[in-house]
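SAMPLE LOG
Freezer: B-3
Tube label: C17
Construct: single chain, 129 aa
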Amino acid sequence: MRRVGAICLMLAFAVSAPAAADGLLAHYEVTVRDAKDVKVVRSAPAVVLGKAIEHDLGSYRLSLLIEGAEADAYVLTVSLLPAGALGAPIVKESFNGRLAGPTVGPLEFKLERNGVEVLGAMTLALVRP
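STRUCTURE (predicted):
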C-alpha cells in the first residue's frame, strides 16, 4: 500500500512540475497616459525569462521584464523611458505575481510620476505542448 501511495505522489509531482519544454505566455494590457496623449498596448506574446518585452509608444518606450518564474511566482518590472533615450526611466517599479490558475487572477499595477501614469494588468500562464 505504501508503494502505491508513493507512486501516486510521484505521478502527481510529474504532472504538476514544469518541464523544460513548457513555455510561458503573457496576456496583458498597459495604458500610458500623460497630459497630451493616451496609448494602450494589448498583447499576448510568448515570454523568455530575463528578456524584456518592449513597445515603442511614440514619445515613450515601454519595457516589461519578467524574471524568476520559480514554482508559481514571478517578478514583473515595468519601466517607461523617453523614446530614444538611454538614461534613467521616467517610472520603474517591480511587482510580485503568480502564474495564472483557478484562484489566481491577473497582476494589476499602477505607477505614476510627474504627470505620467502607467497602469495595467498581466496574466502569466504556463503553456504545455
